[in-house]
Structure formats: C-alpha cells, structure tokens
Design a protein that fits this description.
The structure is a homodimer of 192-residue chains. With 192 residues, chain A is mainly beta. Chain A contains 2 helices and 15 strands. Chains A, B: Its EC number is 5.3.1.9.
C-alpha cells in the first residue's frame, strides 16, 4: 500500500463494522487480482491459466483515512477470497517492513492463517474470529485463506513501517501452504 | 504503563474475547484507584472524601504480553467503572506520548468518550461498541465513562510512544466532562 499518499488527519471517529467487514469513513482501496501475484505461486503455469481465465480478484484491502506516514497508526481490512491454484491456497503477496516495526491482525470472519518468516525460521498462527496475530519487527508476513468462505481481518500498523514486496520475491516465505486431503500441507518454499 | 518492562516476544497468537473484555495470554495488569488520581478531579475535597471512603477502583488496564518498547505494537484493554465525583465523570488519568505517535482505541462495551487536547484545541469522540477513536500524534488523550455500565476499549499503540502523565497535570485537558441533567456538560478545565 505504498501507493497511497495522504495528508495527516485530525482526531476522528471511525466506524468498524465487524459483521460487514467495513471501516467508515473509508480511505483508499486496493484490489489484487491474480495477475498482480506474478512469481508467487509455486505452479506458474496454473497461475497463468488463472490469469487468462478471468483474472479473478484474490484479495482486497480497504483502509481508513489515517495515512501511511511516519508517526500515524493506520488501519485496514483485508478480505481474501477462498480458492486454490494448483492446490496452493489463495494468499496475499506478503511483505516485510523495511522500517522494522510490529503489526497486529485481528480476524473478524472466516478462517485464515498468518505465515511469518524472519529469513530463517517460519511461524504459523491459525486465525479465527477473535484471534489477534502478532507480527514482531523483522518478521515478513503473508495471510492465507484456509477456509471455504472469505477470510477478513483488521490490520493495525505503524504508518512509517513501509511495505517491501520484493523481499518476499527474493527470500520467499520459508514455506508454502497447500490444501491437503486431511488439512493443510506445509511444504518448503525452495522446492517450488 | 511506563512501569512495565519485558523482553521482546516471538510471533504469537493472542485471544481477544470482546464479550469478556479479555486478552489471553495476559501480560501486566494495572489498577488505578481513586488515590492514584490525585490532582485530576475539579473538586479536590470530594476526591479526598472518595479516597477516604474505600478508595474505589476507577479503572484497570490489562495488557497482552507484547512489551512497551520501541518498534513493538502492544495492546491493552482498559475498563473504566461508572461513577462521578462531585458530578465529574470517572476517567483515566490521561497522558501525552512524549514520543509523538498515533494510537487507536476500539470500544468493545459500554458507553464512553475520548477527550483529546493538543494544548490549544479540544476534541471529543463518542465511543460505543464498534467505534475506533483515532488519536493523532501530539494529541493528549483521556477516556471517560459516560454511561451506567463499565466502559471497555482495546488500545493499540506503538511501544516506544511512552506515557507522560505529568503533561496533563501541567496543561490540563482543555475541558472537563460532567454529568448534566440532560446529558454531558463540558466545562473549561481552567475553571476548576
């Protein structure tokens, strides 16, 4: 969301409707289609076929008006659609904060997971409504929908943390998460 | 909560039970009795009488294990009991962040208000369940229970922001909030 820019905001009230998955007033909205996720799925041919076959929306991010600038504390709601591409569960691009700072995700609906990677170790937090997933500074993070319904969470993050998506393309996320016959299959990223 | 100290934490899952108003696992808990609020109520004699008459708990703050250190993003749940002291609604001490950074409060139960003061201007955000009150950097803030039930909110704030309680003793909060016959009465702080 480094695409965003805005001026500082005054003290304000933001309506957080957990049932509807909305913030009001709204700020910028980001929509990620399959074509925006180039180089991230293990099976690049299946990815290209999905792009050719309607290029579906994989996830969207709706922000509050609080801007992504240093010292502010913006919020957003991400909704990931359910789905798989060659068995790999639909996910966000994942990013590292170039200015290492902590972040929280609060699950509001659906069933997801939070994959974290510090360049060496991988951690997984199962996300159901009411779970706060904590990402300490220095841990890259990706969200994954592991259920059959849309998965939504509220993110709160320091506005000056930044988003480095290239870090994940270069380093991976340690593991990939596939839909298995009896649950989730975690496979090493480098085997992709 | 500058009393707290702890080591950094790994990636973790925190259960946020909005009905019960709890975070699990829990970190430090802070309890503020009437005697901890010296110099803050307009009527110091009524304050002293309340201290003498059982020194009631005015509010408590339960934190998650995420520590209050730079680059982390801790969370806490504050619960303010309903009550008045010489008509002035029960409230938190209020503080300024010496390292100016934004903060959010999410109301989870009861009816409260968020009073903000930048040294010149005052702002008020009415807080009901689902309201996110946004405190931009540089605005001192105090929470006030304006209802008949306990008022609880989740706070998310940068761990390095700090808490300067002396700022409020020196500068006030611009206004005081009293229980009026037909709602809230806002009076100038300096008239106290």
């Amino acid at each position: 969301m480094s695409e965003y820019s805005a001026l500082p905001v005054p003290p304000m009230s933001i309506r957080f409707d957990q049932g509807a998955g909305t913030l009001s007033p709204e700020g910028p909205t980001l929509t990620r289609r399959m074509s925006d996720l180039e180089g991230l799925f293990r099976d690049s041919e299946a990815w290209a076929a999905a792009v050719a076959d309607g290029d579906p929306i994989v996830y969207s991010v709706v922000s509050s008006p609080v801007p992504e600038i240093d010292r502010e504390l913006p919020q957003s709601i991400t909704t990931i659609q359910p789905g798989t591409t060659a068995g790999e569960l639909w996910m966000t691009k994942g990013h590292q904060h170039p200015n290492h700072q902590g972040e929280i995700y609060l699950c509001i609906s659906g069933h997801g997971g939070l994959l974290m990677f510090d360049g060496t170790e991988t951690r997984w937090v199962d996300m159901t409504p009411g779970t706060i997933g904590y990402m300490p500074p220095g841990w890259a993070h990706r969200s994954i929908n592991v259920g059959d319904e849309p998965y939504s969470f509220l993110a709160v993050y320091p506005g000056g943390a930044g988003h480095d998506y290239g870090w994940v393309l270069e380093h991976g996320m340690g593991q990939r998460v596939l839909a298995g016959a009896d649950g989730l299959d975690f496979v090493n990223y480098v085997e992709g």
